[in-house]
Amino acid sequence: MWGSNYDMPPAEFADTMDRLWQQVRPLYVELHTYVRHRLTEQYGEDVVPPGEPIPAHLLGNMWAQSWTNIFPLVAPEDADPGYDLTERIREEDLSPEEMVEYGEGFFTSLGLDPLPETFWARSLFEKPADRQVVCHASAWDVDDQDDVRIKMCIEPTAEDFQTIHHELGHNYYQRAYKEQPPLFRGSANDGFHEALGDAVALSVTPQYLQQVGLIDEVPPPAKDIGLLLRSALDKVAFLPFGLMVDKWRWQVFSGEVAPAEYNEAWWDLREQYQGIAPPEERPEKAFDPGAKYHIPANTPYSRYFLARILQFQFHRSLCEEASPDGQLDGPLHRCSVYGSERAGDRLYEMMAMGKERPWPEALEALTGEREMDASAMIDYYAPLMDWLREQNDRLGAESGW
Ligand code: X8Z
Ligand code: ZN
Q1: How many domains does the chain have?
Q2: Whole-angstrom Cα distance, residue 376 to residue 292?
Q3: Is residue 307 one of the residues assigned to a domain?
Q4: What is the pLDDT of residues 83-141, one digit of tens each?
Q5: Cβ neighbours of 135 (radius 10 Å)
Q6: 351: closest CA among 169, 200, 182, 181?
Q7: Which is the most buried residue in 34, 208, 307, 369, by most CB within 10 A?
Q8: For a pocket test of ligand 1, which of 66, 68, 151, 166 has the largest count of ligand atoms closer than 8 A to its C-beta?
Q9: Looking at the annotation, which residues are catalytic?
């Protein structure tokens, strides 16, 4: 059933996931090689043995799904991106609501409507002190019309700044397809819903931050590698995690893996795809998948893998649309579509289709392409890929696990 929502037979969908993974795998392996080498330098070969999976607790994130938090540890000194958005948010003392206003400002700059009064009155932006809530960020469409809201315990960090755009992407999508009949109120496929806000957030470039007054100066292009490395520690590091979560659930649902083997199967996939290992031997009764929100919440996860890839495909097309002659006039990672109503119109056109047509048609409306394809992501990180290869060569870093 979970594989049946992609306008193709489920087996073909599983192949599509694998095809996309093969496209981006070399980039992941290069990043993994570099990061492991730096961690070995930091902690020694006993803790991080070359050629072996990386102990998961050293990657700066409870699920080892995003590695941005260890950027300061792995980045060489000359790869400083020139600014730190978390620091800037704290210096400006931005409230959660003000952070959301920046997000809304991006969408309205594309010519989309401001969020309704009720969004501001009914959303939850801050962790309440007097009761327990589920803090995992989410977006809601309460009446299928205008009552859109987000629920998020916003902290003053660059990560949450990005997640705000992610959640608002859900709300803007929901509003755009509200005129569709109820059955077509949804995204073209669930990866589209997850990709929308992320695609917009790819336009949160240094130049954009300077335009809205969050940084004073745009760092010179020489700083791009640091910026790309920091970004890849999130977006690229995530890919095999995004893939393995549902691979595990497909095995569980089909009965291929029995309950007694749930945890072992989880770590087998973690090792196979992510090249990571548990920090210590897991006790027999452990159920580590349960620590990931989407497992007990029973939320499908392939959508996030697809979104990682689709967001770059969307971004590339929006950037082309925003350029005066339809041609990109610089590297993809420097492009921001902030203020481009043409890009906004194109985006809106796709969102308003909802799931009225099979997803290849919605993709075509936005990008002119009918296949999900990782070449835009590969283009985006091409300068980093060259740099990683050079570094790994120079350091003599061992590859693989
Ligand atoms: O769950 C989410 C969103 C809510 S739809 C915050 N994400 C995945 C996760 O946190 O594991 C976004 C990235 C992947
Ligand atoms: Zn989401």
Answers
A1: 1
A2: 29
A3: yes
A4: 999 999 999 999 999 999 999 999 999 999 999 999 999 999 999 999 999 999 999 99
A5: 15
A6: 169
A7: 307
A8: 166
A9: 136-137, 166-167, 170, 194, 294, 304
For residue 191, give both structure tokens.
Answer: 């990866």
**Nearest-atom index, ligand 1, CA of 242:** 14
What is the C-alpha to C-alpha distance for residues 21 and 239, in angstroms, rounded to an integer? 8
In a domain, 29, yes or no: yes
For tokens 């050079």, the residue is 390
Angle separating helix axes 224-254 and 302-322, nearest 10 degrees: 140
Q: How far is the CA of 171 from the centre of ligand 2 (A)?
A: 10
Of the pLDDT bands very low, low, confident and very high (cuts 50, 70, 90), residue 288 is very high
Place of tokens 């697809």: 306
Domain hosting 350: range is 1-92+102-112+157-401
Mean pLDDT for the chain overall: 97
pTM: 0.97
Which tokens hold the place of 116? 């309704």
Asked whether the predicted pLDDT for residue 366 surpasses 90, the reply is yes
Residue whose C-alpha is closest to residue 172's, from 226, 250, 106, 219: 106
55 is a domain residue: yes
